[in-house]
Specification:
alpha/beta, 6-stranded mixed sheet, 22 helices, flat
Length: 623
């Protein structure tokens, strides 16, 4: 199939009127719609914007290739527009874009369509071709320029690269697999030809893997580049040095990557998915590595927190003291739930947190020392802070042990993971934690005392801040930091902060759901449908339900959500609410300390504020 079967005169605009990225998208979508290529114009535009939210399709050199593969497309097509003045399209080179190709691929697009689209991406890497398009005076001239270039490309199209010792290998892949995958491949191939280097590039596109690297290719490779924004097969590179970068970097900096590969630079890939020098690199990456290790611990701890916490909450429904055999409210089932959820699931919470932090740092040998350190922190009442310290200490101690024992004879290699690492790791971590557990316990008791002694004004400020944190990034680092603090406070016996946190986390999806109901004309049909599911997600304390709305309109949705969540968090403090369950949303409201109705009122007020702000600030969708 030729490109001009997808790009016709009716989908070409010689002079775009648009002066912004958003208006370029709208104008090209309108062009496709007028030509009868779209089934649902609004949905297609939304899909284009969702792709732009992942990473800009303004690839530089004056080119932008917005694209989407969706059922909203009736017939695969390409819209082309020229802006002589240029438009700021947030391009990778920060320069204005002049040539715009909007690719509309239908959900069932066959390989012929996808290969045609990828061929267009290859053609655009030619500077002369781009200049000819920019100078064209008629739509027919553009058609002729493309046809001529396509004939030339067919003549020069390379056959599969013959396996050759010492060649550079590359893998390219982008999320949609339509444009960037092939542009990155062509940029690398063209630059390799210019530098006199042999290269073979595997593309992971929408139509499947092409030019797949063989085992013998990999065995004899001089260097390997993986330019990908999605998962590609990596295990085959075990033991080889690879250079991993985003796909856009292969388009922008092919020479730099090729020269690094030629010099044999890169990181040795091992089958566990971690590089052999990742530990050393972790020390240099600082904050990002700290957060990665922390989130590894928190994400593995959450099932214990959620499952155990809800079981505890259910036990409270029989009465706050129903699990106590000596209390008149005692019930055997409440005691069983408390033992399972509190004594065991919650009992493992801090050891699991510490163990997986240590494992993230030092791989499997860090798990046992981390868990033992976390258990000492838990039984010694050093709390959540003790678990964090145990995890990081154990992880880095095991790294030190690995380094110290690296000079042992090869005959002892098998003893390291089963004897030496756990023996020394557990001993050193355990001794350290035994030494600091008492002062950490005192610190925790002091913190609880300070929070308990806060005046009403300070408590309101704390609730406002914690509520707002739940909405700023809706499941991201700030949200998780607030949630983690709330769990620590529950573990320490102070239930007020987590009441503010859960209220703040429920408000964004509930507020947006309410907005889609009250202000229907401000949302597309698809958004209104998504709004209905947010009622359920909000009631279940799943803040992430609001993310698609925030991504589509961040300047209006995020501030609205933050204000509503902050108010809800502050109100829970005003009303004197405490929440002993870390998760559960509407289902654990009956076990709050204080008034259940006032807690629901705080959530409703916050949600209404968010809904009203979104409804008033948001513009009507273009039809």
């Amino acid at each position: 199939m030729n490109i001009t079967q997808l790009l016709t005169e009716e989908t070409i605009s010689l002079r775009l009127k648009a002066s912004s990225k958003e208006s370029v998208i709208r104008e090209l979508v309108d062009t496709l719609d007028r030509a009868g290529k779209l089934q649902d114009k609004v949905e297609f535009e939304q899909k284009i914007k969702e792709r732009e939210a992942q990473s800009t399709t303004g690839i530089g050199e004056g080119i932008a290739i917005p694209h989407a593969k969706t059922k909203a497309v009736q017939t695969p097509a390409i819209a082309f527009g020229i802006s002589k003045a240029g438009v700021d399209y947030e391009s990778l080179d920060s320069q204005p874009s002049h040539l715009f190709f909007m690719i509309a691929a239908s959900e069932g697009a066959n390989n012929a369509h996808l290969e045609t689209l990828s061929r267009l991406s290859s053609m655009l890497m030619d500077t002369n071709f781009r200049n000819q398009l920019l100078q064209a005076n008629s739509k027919q001239e553009i058609i002729d320029i493309i046809n001529e270039k396509e004939k030339e490309l067919f003549k020069e199209e390379e056959k599969e690269v013959v396996e050759e010792a010492g060649m550079i290998l590359a893998v390219t892949a982008c999320p949609t697999g339509i444009a960037h995958t092939y542009m990155a491949a062509d940029a690398l191939k063209n630059k390799a030809k210019e530098l006199g280097l042999s290269i073979k590039v595997e593309t992971n596109g929408s139509s499947g893997v092409k030019n797949k690297l063989t085992a013998s290719d990999i065995e004899s490779a001089a260097g390997i580049i993986v330019a990908a924004d999605k998962q590609v097969e990596m295990e085959r590179f075990a033991g080889k040095k690879i250079i991993e970068v985003p796909v856009a970097q292969a388009i922008r900096k092919p020479q730099e990557l090729l020269e690094k590969a030629k010099r044999g630079e890169g990181t040795t890939f091992v089958s566990s998915g971690k590089s052999s020098n990742e530990e050393e690199k972790g020390n240099r990456k600082g904050g990002s590595q700290f957060y990665k290790h922390l989130m590894s611990g928190v994400s593995n701890m959450l099932p214990f927190v959620v499952g155990g916490g809800i079981l505890i909450a259910i036990s409270f429904m029989f009465g706050i003291e129903a699990a106590n055999p000596d209390h008149p409210d005692y019930h055997w089932f409440a005691e069983a739930l408390s033992i399972i959820g509190g004594g065991n699931a919650f009992g493992l919470m801090i050891p699991v947190l510490a163990g997986f932090i240590a494992m993230s740092i030092a791989d499997r040998p860090g798990l046992a020392p981390g868990m033992i350190g976390g258990l000492i922190a838990s039984t010694g009442e050093a709390g959540f802070l003790g678990g964090l310290i145990a995890g990081f200490f154990a992880g880095y101690i095991v790294l030190g042990i690995k380094k110290a024992l690296s000079g042992l004879p090869a005959s002892l290699e098998g003893l390291k993971p089963v004897l030496l690492y756990p023996l020394f790791g557990i001993f050193i971590t355990g001794m350290f934690m035994l030494y600091i557990v008492t002062p950490l316990k005192a610190f925790n008791e002091g913190l609880i005392s300070i929070l308990g002694g806060l005046g009403s004004g300070n408590l309101i400020l704390l609730g406002l801040i914690l509520g707002a944190m739940m909405s700023i990034d809706m499941g991201g680092p700030i949200n998780k930091a607030a949630f983690t603090f709330g769990i620590a406070m529950i573990d320490a016996g102070n239930y007020a902060p987590h009441a503010a946190i859960m209220a703040g986390g429920m408000v964004p999806p509930l507020g947006i759901a309410l907005a889609t109901t009250l202000f229907k004309n401000k949302f597309t049909k698809q958004e209104r449908e998504a709004g209905k599911t947010n009622y359920i997600m909000g009631a279940s304390f799943i803040t992430e339900g609001a993310i698609p709305f925030a991504a589509a309109d961040p300047m209006r949705v995020i501030p609205s959500a933050v204000v509503g969540s902050a108010v809800a968090g502050a109100l829970t403090m005003v009303f004197g609410i405490g929440l002993p369950a870390p998760h559960g949303g509407i289902f654990v409201v009956p076990i709050v300390s204080g008034s259940m109705l006032l807690y629901l009122l705080a959530i409703v007020i916050g949600s209404v504020i968010t809904a009203l702000m979104v409804g008033l600030l948001k513009k009507k969708p273009t039809v």
